[in-house]
Write a structure and sequence with these properties.
- By secondary structure, the chain is an all-alpha fold.
- Among the domains are: about 40 residues, no CATH class; about 120 residues, Orthogonal Bundle (Cytochrome Bc1 Complex, Chain D, domain 2), CATH 1.10.760.
- Helices cover about 55% and strands about 0% of the residues.
- The termini are far apart.
Length: about 270
């Protein structure tokens, strides 16, 4: 080192002691050895005192902490309801309400139909019941009795037969019957009659529908058993009873009227 120091001192034309101190300072400042500093100076480098101050540490740049990106959850895009969508919803709602209303109306119609059907069946039932027990059954009974009543052993006069014909021509049998039936309503007419007739012409006058009093026993009860009263009643019913619904037959001539009255007075006398 002394040789190197001497050489450097010679090169630098400076005392060795000064070169020594400078080399040591330089070495300390640069972090090199004294020999390395002297070697560099001996190689012709400028030995100007490179007063290297202690290398200040390079300012450490504070790294801005890089925030790790927070994973962003991808939100399911919410489709905004457009005016069209809202209109569609309103239309659907209206359709649903209309369907419900239609269903209710259909139920009401069905209920009305069922009620109307039940009412109709009830009316039909009443009509059928009335027809059977007020008309059909009594009519059948009358027909059966009439068919059993023909007895050729019964004899009647020609006047009675003439009166029976007039009675039939006047259609008296459409309102009056001549048959006391085995029914409670007929009990007021007297005992049940066998109604034996001389011929079929008399059977026609028995009638099948009773809208007026039965005449089976007309000749056996008052006042109808009186010929004078009958004549007055038939020619002028209101003279006997006001507002009576019986029609007047004052258009008959005297002979036909007598035939009719003779026939009526025979009712009940030959039917035992």
């Amino acid at each position: 080192m002394s040789e190197l120091l001497s050489k450097v001192a010679e090169i630098l034309n400076a005392p060795e002691s000064l070169v020594q101190r400078s080399a040591e300072a330089r070495a300390e400042a640069s972090g090199k050895s004294v020999d390395e500093v002297l070697q560099s100076w001996a190689g012709g480098e400028s030995v100007a005192a490179v007063e290297k101050t202690a290398e200040e540490p390079a300012p450490v740049q504070e790294e801005t902490p890089v925030e790790e990106p927070v994973p962003v959850q991808e939100e399911t895009p919410v489709e905004e309801l457009t005016t069209t969508d809202e209109s569609s919803i309103d239309i659907q709602k209206d359709d649903d309400e209309e369907i419900v209303q239609l269903l209710i109306e259909e139920e009401l119609v069905e209920a009305k139909k069922e009620s109307s059907f039940a009412l109709l069946m009830g009316v039909i039932g009443v009509v059928v019941f009335t027809y059977l027990f007020a008309f059909s059954i009594p009519k059948q009974q009358s027909e059966n009795l009439v068919l059993e009543s023909l007895n050729n052993s019964v004899r009647v006069s020609e006047e009675i037969l003439e009166g029976a014909t007039i009675y039939n021509q006047l259609n008296c049998q459409s309102c009056h019957t001549q048959n006391v039936r085995v029914l409670i309503p007929d009990s007021q007419n007297g005992k049940v009659l066998k109604n034996r007739f001389a011929n079929k012409n008399l059977i026609l006058n028995t009638g099948l529908l009773r809208l007026a009093p039965d005449l089976s026993t007309l000749a056996s009860r008052e006042p109808t058993n009186d010929g004078v009263w009958l004549k007055k009643y038939l020619t002028d019913p209101t003279s006997v009873k006001e507002e009576i619904p019986h029609p007047s037959i004052n258009f008959l001539n005297e002979q036909d009227l007598d035939y009719l009255i003779t026939y009526l007075l025979s009712l009940g006398s030959t039917n035992e």
